[in-house]
Amino acid sequence: MKMWSGRFHQPLDADFERWQRSFDFDRRLLREELAASRAHATALKNGGNLSSSELITILQGLNQIAEKAAASAAFLDDNEAEDVHHFVEKQLVAVIGDTGYKLHSGRSRNEQIATDLRLYIRASIDQMKADLAEWLWISLDRAEQAGGAAMPAYTHLQRAEPVLVAHWLLAYVEMFLRDAERLADCRKRLNLSPLGSGAVAGATLPLDRRAMAEELGFDAPTANSIDATSDRDFVLEFVGALSLLAVHLSRWAEEMILFSSQEFGFIRLPEAYSTGSSAMPQKMNPDLLELTRGKAARIIGDATALLVTVKGLPLAYNKDLQETQQPLFDAAGTVLSLLPLASGWMKAVEFNHERMQQAAQSGFTNAWAGATYLVQRGVPFRLAHEQIGKAVQTCIERKCELGDLALEELRQLNPAFDQDFYSCLSLQAVLNIHDVPGGTAPARVRQAIADARRKVESMREDVHAHA
Ligand code: ARG
Three-class SS of residue 275? Predict the structure, then answer.
């Protein structure tokens, strides 16, 4: 039986009927739908609208539906169910008879879908937090293993200054820590219960909204029934946070692809996450990274679709909102499938430290340190910059590095140059002068690793607390 056929004289056009259904995709909300239905049934009974035995029958029926779904995927092959809400009602009546029709007393699918989506996103965030913590932990292991190894840092994709490999990896750690925080923040804001909001104006029966919220692990009931049934901010915010996470993953992937090219040769691709070419026998391609970069585009598309879906809607519920489900599921599913693979890749990748170190030491990455030497001897920076620039010019002509210039020659540029200039150009010395919090001096990087470890540890503890 349909949920709404009474006022209709004619049957629906068959193609339209199929086309407007959402059960194909909202079946994944079954667990959430059953949980929300249990809470509603209990509130009905406590409000005097179900007897104790009816409540027990309904709860048992809902459990049976969960069991059947767990036992066989074919149970969900229902081409009459309009959506997950209709499916549960149908199945409940099939299992317990007409008492099943009592469950929908005083509620609306508008509050149900809003509730299911909040529960679904909450669970997704919890899983993502665990996955992100794993990625971060592995990256911190890799940073620690890299020890004192150096590489060039780039600006404008031109060699700029040497940094520790660990410092470079920590840059990504910071991005993903922020992503985890954004998700945690989103979780906090969405954790309110729409149950009892009805179709738009509030439930038509006395339901204890606070008790329903508590049963479902929400912090409180939502404050306004019109907003609660039509708000999808939490979906937009979640997928917005995911699109930023995906952008970070994409930048990470892009840089790893670049560094794995023969031209850079900084990393060796893990074979377990690469593929070959059907034509060129020598090829090994960074597929995991390329797909990561490509999937970011999809997630950004999902975020855009969601914003545009909601932007023109009058209050309150409109069926357009059904269209927010697929972009949400797509974005969440894409990220959830990706993060463990990115962790596996990160664990397996090999760094070519020799090649990185060599690149870090050539191409005048110590020029700023050279100018700093003069500054410490009282030379105004702009003049020091100019003089080191001239020295670089000479080196380019002679195809040598700054340390190869003779002291007399340097003294013609500025008499402040002395023998100790050469030691300030060494890789170690250049790394060491970046001795500020957040800088690449080795002691600072060790501290930064320890600080990040603490943050990831507390993320892991939270994960266990929610599990
Ligand atoms: N399948 C619907 C959705 O996802 C559920 C809410 C339907 N409400 C309604 N009044 N037709 O939005």
Answer: strand
